[in-house]
Amino acid sequence: MIDRERFDAVYLQGVAEVMARLPEDWSSLSKHNVGWRKGQFDQEAYLRASAERYWRAYAILDASGARTVLDVGGFLAAFPLALARLGYEVAIAERYDYYGNALDAIASHVKASGVRVIDMDFTEPSADLAAVRGRFDAVTCMAVAEHLAHSPRALMENICAALRPGGSLVFEVPNLAYWPKRYALLVRGTSVLAPIADVYHSEIPFTGHHREYTISDARYVVGEAGLEVLREETFNYSIDTRQLWNRLKYAPAFLLKEWAEIIMLHCRRPPGGAR
Known about the structure:
By secondary structure, this protein is an alpha/beta fold. The protein has twelve helices and seven strands.
């Protein structure tokens, strides 16, 4: 396992490459979620802060002994790029044509960097799983499930199909019970859901957050898929702790795991196969 400094260097290089290949016009990227409009959402800051999330996912992959990894819904693909450069055999399942031609440069760069691109939406039922069935030691599903307006069952079934018996899943979702959201709801009456303006002005289907998860929700979903939870962790990555007031106001997010920002589960497909 490499150290955090080395991981960050590799990952942030991927972030720089991705940002350099984003189009000037973000209209097709934000069509179904206006919260992604250029100037309204700082994609680079989000990706850079996400080094914490991906470092934790990498640590799980390393501990599992996985060598072949499928990243489901990786979108901008900075993490798959990092994994490929760290010696993993990596594939990404993504429907890039959903965004028109906006991400063509990123998709081409990902392929040229040794990451296999599988043109498949894992959130939909699929009869054709030949390209993925039982082929991967591990699957990462990072910040995907909360975007679904429907059951996550198809997503989980497709993930289980892609995993080899005994293979690992890194399942990550934002925590609905995140303390700053509770604080905003209780003190200011602010909804914990996606801003209504973003929902109202986005084209159908809205692709923002439909249903964030609690820890028990996450456990339930992976359990129903027939996966075993080997380890669970919660953490924060976007609170600016340099400000004393933030440290005091949001202290419960650091003191209680149920109120942290992110839920990450390390799951395993049983050696005999998931149901």
